[in-house]
Amino acid sequence: xxxxxxxxxxxxxxxxxxxxxxxxxxxxxxxxxxxxxxxxxxxxxxxxxxxxxxxxxxxxxxxxxxxxxxxxxxxxxxxxxxxxxxxxxxxxxxxxxxxxxxxxxxxxxxxxxxxxxxxxxxxxxxxxxxxxxxxxxxxxxxxxxxxxxxxxxxxxxxxxxxxxxxxxxxxxxxxxxxxxxxxxxxxxxxxxxxxxxxxxxxxxxxxxxxxxxxxxxxxxxxxxxxxxxxxxxxxxxxxxxxxxxxxxxxxxxxxxxxxxxxxxxxxxxxxxxxxxxxxxxxxxxxxxxxxxxxxxxxxxxxxxxxxxxxxxxxxxxxxxxxxxxxxxxxxxxxxxxxxxxxxxxxxxxxxxxxxxxxxxxxxxxxxxxxxxxxxxxxxxxxxxxxxxxxxxxxxxxxxxxxxxxxxxxxxxxxxxxxxxxxxxxxxxxxxxxxxxxxxxxxxxxxxxxxxxxxxxxxxxxxxxxxxxxxxxxxxxxxxxxxxxxxxxxxxxxxxxxxxxxxxxxxxxxxxxxxxxxxxxxxxxxxxxxxxxxxxxxxxxxxxxxxxxxxxxxxxxxxxxxxxxxxxxxxxxxxxxxxxxxxxxxxxxxxxxxxxxxxxxxxxxxxxxxxxxxxxxxxxxxxxxxxxxxxxxxxxxxxxxxxxxxxxxxxxxxxxxxxxxxxxxxxxxxxxxxxxxxxxxxxxxxxxxxxxxxxxxxxxxxxxxxxxxxxxxxxxxxxxxxxxxxxxxxxxxxxxxxxxxxxxxxxxxxxxxxxxxxxxxxxxxxxxxxxxxxxxxxxxxxxxxxxxxxxxxx
Length: 793
Description:
The protein is mostly beta strands and 793 residues long. Helix content is 5%, strand content 41%. The chain is elongated, with a radius of gyration of 62 Å.
């Protein structure tokens, strides 16, 4: 048994010796198979440097004689030439030249490689790896074909991978202008190379940047080819236009001076230092701004007229790329001259100026019509502005007053410096002021017959004397008339000296009231100024049957305040075609002036009333014995008239609305309040004459009459229709009458009240109207902004 075992072992040993390295199942390893345990680069490696030494490491020492060009090869597109060395257990392949970038290589250790015992690799060892990619330039600043590049630009190039700083130099990174190298310093950081020129670049010039293949990445891989790009620097800036133009004249005084450039500019270089404006050697203060391609100089104050100014843009103004202008840009212009007022109409200090005068001023130059307004052309009387409209034509401005001027007053015309010339917008150097005085208005100083005269001869020639010479052409049958009621009396008008004469064609009618009128069409001879208002007076022809207290004495009055006076409050009270009267002293008539004599009865700045006729009172002046007598006769006549329309004289009156007349339409007749008072509050009262011009209404109330209600819309009116006349409406009031206390409304008829008549309330500005008369027997008549239109007899 033992012999058999020894024999088997011996046989196995022989097999191992003849067949190579084999494992002994009983004795362990008697021979080791050589194998490649690792490689550099490793199998499948990528990004391998181009100067890589390729090696293979064995598991045991090898026979160096078997490690050679035949047993250890490297192949890319073709076999790679190189040197093979062996040391220890490592075989190394050193390529004769750098590997090719971005290439896959195959390394092979063949079975002819053997260990020291002659054991060979059991099979070829093969592996692959790939070399590094070539680096690339991924961006530049400036970019390729960039324009308008800063002259101080540091030029950069960014790579796809980190580079070997030692390969980024002035040799591998160059900037040229044409064929000339630009001097500069090259630096490298991160993955960016920078070229900083030693001096500023030249404007409006093309430059070429080049990164050569000498630039390598950190593993030594160069660019696959030179990287070349171009860029151009910015153009030289210049001023291409200005406003105003060079040598411009008549420039507006509020001008903003501008300069436009051929290229965009750096706003920070356009300042009050680089953009200046001077008048002579004096700097004009102002602010500089820049937008688009235009710089603007805005003076802090307006330019002065008629002067030469010099604007300058210095070489301190630069484009965004730092390029200055080649030289300072200078231009000049002159401002417009100030216009003047050459003539006015009326001229300064003129007198006797007509009241309808249109005031004008002519200028030395055409003016801007938008500056000729009611603000720049004014007319004042003292400190009071005159309302009017302003127009402008040619070189003349005209002020047209809204109403005629007032006689005998000084007026001041002013053209302010707000008036400016049209071309240069230059104002007057100073306000132009002049004055003139209007002519005095003529007045009628006396008449024959006197106003309210009675017992006048039937063949009387009527005359009127004026305060001054009149224009004969304005004294005619149109401006001087005599009427009986509404009927004009035929006659001839003549004028001599200061007296106008009306000579009737035939005698007057006995016992008849006539009314003579001089209208405002009658004008003075010098200033063509009309009477301030119509002059009206009445007289009665001879008729022995008329007693002194006849109602004819009340027909001339618009208001009569019995023995207690008359009061006005407001600026708009007027008695048209009539007079005022009271048997009281003149001091009890307040707030009125006589339109015939111009006498004033206690007027204040807030209380002024015009009486177109006369004011009759007892003394003191302007009351006198004559006017007191007329007033006394009128009061007697008023009492007679009062009694004539009383229920005793006119019985049978009805009360259609239980004391309320508002909203009713009444036919002619007599109406008496059953309760003792009449109100017009529920609406207006309408009186229908039904076509009869002689239709008559008499309203009787034992106590009061109240027209209107409280509130701004409380006014009520008495309306006449179908031929009804105000002279045929009468109101008998036992106590007092109150007419539209809230202001407004139109009352109609002759009101005869025992204890006073009141129109509106103090403070009301809305006009209250009476078409008729307001007569009180024992109390005053009070008016607030009231118009009384006295009907003709």
